Amino acid sequence: xxxxxxxxxxxxxxxxxxxxxxxxxxxxxxxxxxxxxxxxxxxxxxxxxxxxxxxxxxxxxxxxxxxxxxxxxxxxxxxxxxxxxxxxxxxxxxxxxxxxxxxxxxxxxxxxxxxxxxxxxxxxxxxxxxxxxxxxxxxxxxxxxxxxxxxxxxxxxxxxxxxxxxxxxxxxxxxxxxxxxxxxxxxxxxxxxxxxxxxxxxxxxxxxxxxxxxxxxxxxxxxxxxxxxxxxxxxxxxxxxxxxxxxxxxxxxxx
Length: 255
Known about the structure:
This protein is mainly α. It contains nine helices and no strands.
């Protein structure tokens, strides 16, 4: 193991999960009390993700990491075509889900109730939605896949069977989302395992990156359509407050 590997692993496996676990309650309380700070939080998240991802790429380009490659690996020949078809179908399904939420108040209410545990961090205003669907989703999709699938999973693959590396790296990925609570850890860990599977099946980091972006963008759009209070409709500015009062304050976002 090279010194750069040890430092990067310490950040990914120990420092990040510990930091997110500690700051979770503080961060949640702050955004609940100051929801207008969401956009600033999104900007900070993007900066943090790209700082670490660019550090990874810099270390790799300078030959200071032990991995031979970050973005490709051997895979079955039919992996990419099958995943591409599945991704198109999944995108169409999610698009239909957004249309249903937009058109049907009953579905919108049900969605609001299911999303409450993470409503504190999800977009409710147009500006927040633009940041979440755009920069945050792109940053999380590219940077987190480079870090956790491109680097961590493949580094672990050098010491254990690939299935074990997939599970362990996905568990660490889930812990990195400790600020979302126990349910968020399990959900993001499970999604991480799906991303790891896509990387193994296709041999390309492109596909987990695309799926990651789609999931996060969908969560941001779903939250905005459900909770929006930017005056898009008469009386809509009170939608989020009234819904949250009725139910304990999620979306299925990865980042």
